[in-house]
């Protein structure tokens, strides 16, 4: 079922503003691992993208054979939004390039990182007050 994110202009605008997010993944024991990260929403595809090092704890959490659900949250005063979904770690150059391009549009060009991977999050639920 489509969330029709692109039909929600206030939500899309909020996710284009420059805010850092928190990204929550689940450790093997089920406890939450929450870290700051830059995330970019692609509303037409109902996908969010991020970039990180392939050696990070969040990547180990997602590739560890357990639950790949994530929650991404950003807050600006009384406005907030959470994207929930299923994450995939993508190591192929095309996905990494797309994630870097999208990240640079919202934030800045990231520093070089030969261990970089892309996180692709298929958004399944949106919460918030924007």
- Care to count the β-strands? 7
Q: Mind summarizing the main beta sheet?
A: 7 strands, antiparallel
Q: Provide the gyration radius in Å.
A: 14 Å
Overall, the morphology is globular
Give the structural class: alpha+beta
Q: Estimate percent helicity.
A: 10-25%
* Strand percent estimate: 35-45%
Helix-strand topology string: HEEEEHEEHE
Going across the major beta sheet, what is the strand order? 2-1-5-6-7-4-3
Q: Roughly how many Å apart are the termini?
A: 22 Å
Low-confidence stretches: none
Mean residue pLDDT: 94
Q: What count of helical segments does DSSP give?
A: 3
Topology, pairings included?
Layout: H1 9-16, E1 21-26, E2 32-37, E3 39-42, E4 47-53, H2 57-63, E5 69-76, E6 79-90, H3 93-106, E7 116-129
Antiparallel strand pairs: 1-2, 1-5, 3-4, 4-7, 5-6, 6-7
Please sum up the structure shown.
The chain is an alpha+beta fold and 130 residues long.
């Amino acid at each position: 079922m489509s969330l029709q994110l692109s039909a929600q202009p206030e939500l899309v605008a909020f996710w284009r503003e420059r805010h850092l997010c928190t990204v929550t993944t689940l450790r093997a024991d089920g406890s939450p691992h929450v870290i700051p990260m830059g995330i970019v929403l692609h509303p037409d595809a109902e996908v969010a993208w991020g970039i990180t090092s392939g050696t990070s704890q969040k990547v180990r959490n997602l590739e560890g054979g357990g639950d790949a659900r994530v929650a991404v949250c950003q807050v600006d005063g009384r406005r907030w939004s959470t994207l929930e979904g299923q994450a995939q770690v993508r190591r192929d150059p095309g996905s990494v390039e797309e994630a870097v391009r999208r990240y640079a549009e919202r934030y800045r060009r990231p520093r070089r990182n030969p261990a970089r991977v892309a996180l692709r999050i298929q958004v399944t639920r949106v919460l918030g007050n924007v």
